[in-house]
Records
---
Amino acid sequence: MLTKRIIPCIDVDLDEDGNAAVYTGVNFEDLKYTGDPVEMAKAYNESGADEFVFLDITASAEGRETMLETVSAVADECFIPLTVGGGIRTKDDIKETLRAGADKVSINTGALERPELITEGAEAFGSQCIVISVDARRRSDDEGEHYVTVDGEEVWFECTVKGGREGTGRDVISWAKEAEQRGAGELFVNSIDADGTKDGYDIPLTKAVCDNVSTPVIASSGCGGPEDMEEVFVEAGADAGLAASIFHFDEYSIADTKAYLADKGLPIRQ
């Protein structure tokens, strides 16, 4: 079994003065100031995290470019693999983000609007650099393609764009399979329903994606502690567990999380 990765994530936006700041929220809403992205990157780099994710959470919705100066400053403090997402729409955007110091780019809205971007990015920079992010939400109507049973109800998962603000009508499982075929090296699965709740990852969503692709899957949204990571690794088959607030507010450390998972017999990089 491949080593499971523990990944802290920061959601970055511009504050009232136009400066980059980290925010946390619930269900992609009610965002509250959490800290400085560069200082947090430095702390996580020293914490034993396996990778680090920087998401510019309003770039796509506001139609602006990713804050590359901040990305560069973060990269200067981060010597573990760095994934950057938000506002990436073209091959040039990918190139500039990698040039700023990212090791991988996370793309959501730009890829759904023009799926060819996945192939262009993979061919130009390698599949290992292309992470396709999926902001999924549950729907219980008859417009989906792949259904799972959750609490006795048949549901499907819809891809959303612009930070979860707009639905697309695209079925998450169908899109994950297409993204893999087009050259995505990794899938980053976010659950709008679970985001910020600390009630655990969306296991039905994550398992449905993992069961339908061979590409590594990062589980995101809803982590309330190490036991939730254990569940998403064992029950859903995720390759990595991403968390934000439990690490940001020192509820759990990276080291404690890894020790818990190792005690449960999971392959963890110490």
---
Amino acid sequence: MQSLWMLVASFLFSIMGVCVKLASVDYSTAEIVAYRGAIGMLMIAMLVRVQGGTLRTGMPRHHLVRGGVGVISLWLWFYALGKLPLAMAVTLNYMSPIWIAAILLTSAWWRKQRGLTWQPIAAILMGFVGVVLLLRPSIHNDQIMGGVLALISGMLAAWAYMQVRQMGLLGEPEYRVVFYFSLTCAVAGLMGTLIGKSVYAAAGEVTWHHLDSRGIMLLLAIGVTAASAQMAMTRAYRLGNTLVTANLQYVGIVFSSVWDVLIWKVSLAWLSWVGIAVILCSGLIATFYNAKTNRKSIPGDAISSE
């Protein structure tokens, strides 16, 4: 039953995606990243204060690397959300289990390990077939860049998840990982906005937009849903069955597809829906392989998400 927290996390992440897509019309990606990080950081800080924890860490280098990779992944995904249909962007970003399987397979080949199974190869091949089916029938010329960036975002997210798992196994609590990632987002978003201001000021473009009531509500919703979803996901991975929890993450694609139909009246081609189904199946295979590999290597499970 604890794994069902992933349903809550997936639903909240889908709402975050909707808000990011709506906010991207009026705010730059750097601004959205900055506000998302600042609000999440404040939420975690208040939670730590209430529960009597501490934010002191002995792993500054690990947090810096994880934060850097994670914020680039988040930045690319937020940009893609503004350019692609919501379900398409979420599906491409949720390919991280497939990329993790690819990383584990490459590592096994590099170490010349025996007993390699068919699951990772099947997952990787199915994943790429699903991407082709998803993108080719429906993507437009102005969406190609968004599709590529969403794909890269999923690859970087896989790397970030493995870093988070390593920190968890070394004893770093999840709330610190979430806090310092949010802090990195806030700093990176602020720096990106300031750099953009110096670059585009001559062209007369606005890089830090005025906050109206609609913008405040959207940005606040992004920060709150992102931080809440992270906490729900962390609880699911800590207390629930790892395999069930990881598979329930893909329900987020269904939620995003529903939002696409209800809000943007998006009608994907039938081959695109086949592509989503293929990616879902490949993700399930990759999850089984990843869980099996983790059980053989090191006990314990801890994964967080952007």
---
Amino acid sequence: MAASIDENDYVHIVANHLNANFHAYNFATWEVASKDRGEFLQLLDNYLDPRIDLITIQLGENASDLLTWKEDWIDLINYIKAKNKKAKIVVIGDVWSFKNRDELKMAAAKECSVTFIDLSDIKDNKTYQAGLNSTVMDDQGNSHKITHDGVAAHPGDLGMKEIARRIIHSVM
């Protein structure tokens, strides 16, 4: 959301490093649901293919209902594993602090035997955030200043580079 250009977000950096094609899917529907998250899993079917080698799951910062959070993560991971038996699955930690959210996500990843990328040392760290008044380019090549605190708190280029470095390190 707040990389200066698309090529500087972690997805593009990882794909370029691996010389791979990629597809990004915003699964916010699952993340913000307060119950029955499993009902949304089939929305992933068009994006899951047994030929996929790597799946990164960076999801959760917008979730507030954690009553079934760990179990929902286990269901999500197992659903993806069933559709993509050979893919390496990497779950990426939160970039913001919220009590127990990341810990439950990490426990689910461990229980499902998938890699968890811990971001606790860069979490909420302004050095890795885009920051107010940073310039970002939209899809049409127009530049915009970040004026919204929520957008400014997202990882900027340095944060994206660090997230990409950790993903690449985990798959090499």
